[in-house]
């Protein structure tokens, strides 16, 4: 026997038991590192071609075929309501089991036509959108965020999912403060790109 443990040979630089025990204790006593979501903040402007696009009045006219298709859809829906169905069938129709989203892409339209875009967790709150907008402004202003067709968002702890903003949402920023310059910070306006 040459003094080397044949079962567990030690190489130069091999950590000792005391060192390994210290490392384990350090890992057990330290805080978990939790990743933070990058907002991937962007400022977008509508391209000129999109702003000038107009639909003819025929686009809005309802044809006989459209009416017949709508009547057929409603009749089928009524039939389904009359049938005895299992819970799985009702859940499928209600959308239960649909895809679960973890992130939401939010765009805030400013009065000057620019869009501020950011990525949020589906578990973020409406308050986080307000803070995101505030951090992007040139100077502090009072504003409201409005979802088209719905009342203004309340600045509270409502989850984005509950507010109907998952997987995405477009909000309009409304303010009584008027300025001839954009409300967004110069740093963000420099990164302007087309929508």
Structure description:
There is one protein chain. With 195 residues, the protein is α/β, with parallel strands linked by helices. It is built from 6 helices and 6 strands, in the order H-E-H-H-H-E-E-H-E-E-H-E. The chain has helices spanning 17-29, 48-51, 64-82, 87-94, 126-136, 186-189, and strands at 42-45, 103-109, 114-121, 144-146, 168-174, 193-194. It has a 6-stranded mixed β-sheet, covered by helices on one side. A hairpin with a 4-residue loop joins strand 2 and strand 3 (114-121). The radius of gyration is 28 Å and the shape is flat. The N and C termini lie far apart (76 Å). The mean pLDDT is 82.
According to DSSP, the number of beta strands is 6
- The coarse overall form would be flat
Q: How are strands sequenced across the largest beta sheet?
A: 4-5-2-3-1-6
Low-confidence stretches: none
> Helicity, in percent?
25-40%
Order of helices and strands: HEHHHEEHEEHE
Average the pLDDT over all residues and give the rounded result. Answer: 82
Helix/strand class: alpha/beta
Main sheet makeup? 6 strands, mixed
Helix segment tally: 6
Rg to the nearest angstrom? 28 Å
Distance between the termini: 76 Å
User: What share of the residues does DSSP label as strand, in percent?
Assistant: 15-25%
Give the structure's gist in a few sentences.
This protein starts with 16 loop residues before the first helix and ends with a strand. The chain has helices at 17-29, 48-51, 64-82, 87-94, 126-136, 186-189, and strands at 42-45, 103-109, 114-121, 144-146, 168-174, 193-194.
